[in-house]
Description:
By secondary structure, this protein is of the alpha+beta class. The protein folds into 3 domains: 2-91; 97-168, SH3 type barrels (Roll), CATH 2.30.30; 175-286, Alpha-Beta Plaits, CATH 3.30.70. The protein has helices at residues 2-9, 11-39, 45-70, 72-92, 94-108, 160-163, 190-205, 209-223, 257-275; strands at residues 117-120, 123-130, 134-141, 148-157, 167-168, 175-185, 233-237, 243-253, 283-286. Helix 7 (190-205) packs across helix 9 (257-275). The relative contact order is 0.09.
Amino acid sequence: MSLLQTALASPVMHKLVSSALLIVAATLAYRFAAASIRRVEWSSQEVRRRWLVMARNVAVLTCLLLLVIIWAEQLRTLALSVVAFAAAIIISTKELLMCFTGGLLRSSTAMFGIGDRIEVKKLRGDVIDLTLFTTTVLEVGPEQLSHQHTGRVIVLPNSVFLGEPVVNESYMEDYVLHTTVLPISRKDDWGRIERHLLQAARDACGEFIDAASRHIARIGRLRGIDVPSAQPKVTLQFPKPDEINLVLRFPVPARAKSRVEQRILRRFLELEAASGGANVQTTTEQS
Length: 287
């Protein structure tokens, strides 16, 4: 008996009883209102149905509102528990959620695809696998000036794409524009070196310059961007008062950058040797 009395005297039992009485009262009120509506002569059955529906909706909404008021304290406690549980889940799975979000960003923006060469956080490589949480690339290096595969595989979490810039070296697909930098002294005959460099580039790229020009122009039309000329071109830079950088830009198949670059440099050295020219050092980068 004591347990029964305690249960009956508890606040929860009072709320249950109050809720049951409220539901009964709302039901009786709706039935009374519906009976009154049916007794009235309406201009059409549609108007009567509209009033019946309105009476039912008012009764349901009023009952729900009063139930929320009755159980407000318990609902507030439940809401806090749910929020705390959700926060704990989010904190414990933060990295996975960021990786999943990064994967969605990568897919929705078509940032890159299988086979593209990308650079992110000074890591370069060819994309060989894409999942919801990771991106796998076959590393290219060493450093930023080489185009040889190192044989190592890099697995990047997709969360890195949320906060780091991504360089897609395969943006122009089949053909790209590549640059080679030749630092020389201002005492050297830079005019002769420039002519030999351009000649070497034309000799090495002559077989695909026209195809590269058409391809790059088509990419420009499709994507609505201004693209530079595909013809080999040399520009001058002055990194130091006594040095000149000759920057050669030339078109090259995306998968043959290293091979064509070496062909140009070797042909250039042959031309220089034939004319008794000086030695030069080279650095390269993607344009």
